[in-house]
C-alpha cells in the first residue's frame, strides 16, 4: 500500500509540475490562439494503448479474481483523473493573482451573464 501511495503522490506532483511550467511559460495561451500545435505521435499513443491492453490481458490470465482486476482499473482511472483535475487549482490561483491581465485579454471576465456580449 505504501508503494501505491508513493506512486499516486508522485503522479500528482509530476502532473502539477508540468502544468505549472506550461501555465507560466505561455504555452497554454499559444495553444489557445492557434500559434502552437501539439502533435501527439501515433507511436506514443499506440504504445500507451498497447500497454493498457497488455496489462488487462496479462492480469486476466494470471489473476483469478476479476473483481481485483476491476478495482485496480478503477483506482488507476481515479488517480489519473485526480491528477488531471488538480491542475485546475493552479489555473485558479494564476487568475486570482493576475486578474488585471486576464481582464485585459478577456474584458468580459467576471461580469454577470446579462452584461456580457452575446456571441
Sum up the structure in keywords.
single chain, about 120 residues, mainly alpha, about 75% helix, about 0% strand, elongated
Describe the structure.
By secondary structure, this protein is mostly helical. The protein is 76% helix and 0% strand. The protein has five helices and no strands. The chain has helices at 2-25, 27-33, 42-62, 66-97, 99-105. Helix 1 packs parallel to helix 4 (66-97). The radius of gyration is 20 Å and the shape is elongated. The N and C termini lie far apart (51 Å).
Specify the number of helices.
Answer: 5
Strand content: under 5%
Helical/strand content category: mainly alpha
- Uncertain residue segments: none
Largest sheet: none
Chain-averaged pLDDT: 77
- What portion of residues is helical? over 70%
CA-atom Rg in angstroms:
20 Å
The general outline is elongated
Order of helices and strands: HHHHH
Work out the number of β strands: 0
Q: Report the end-to-end length measured between terminal Cα atoms.
A: 51 Å
Topology:
Blueprint: H1 2-25, H2 27-33, H3 42-62, H4 66-97, H5 99-105
Helix pairs in contact: 1-4
Short synopsis of the structure:
The protein has 119 residues and is mostly helical.
Amino acid at each position: 500500500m505504501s508503494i501505491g501511495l508513493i506512486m499516486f503522490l508522485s503522479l500528482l506532483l509530476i502532473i502539477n509540475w508540468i502544468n505549472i511550467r506550461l501555465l507560466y511559460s505561455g504555452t497554454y495561451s499559444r495553444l489557445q490562439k492557434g500559434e502552437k500545435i501539439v502533435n501527439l505521435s501515433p507511436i506514443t499513443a499506440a504504445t500507451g494503448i498497447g500497454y493498457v491492453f497488455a496489462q488487462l490481458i496479462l492480469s486476466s490470465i494470471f489473476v483469478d479474481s476479476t473483481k481485483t482486476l476491476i478495482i485496480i482499473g478503477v483506482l488507476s482511472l481515479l488517480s489519473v483523473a485526480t491528477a488531471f483535475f488538480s491542475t485546475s487549482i493552479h489555473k485558479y490561483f494564476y487568475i486570482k493573482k493576475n486578474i488585471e491581465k486576464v481582464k485585459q485579454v478577456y474584458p468580459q471576465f467576471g461580469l454577470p451573464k446579462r452584461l456580457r456580449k452575446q456571441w
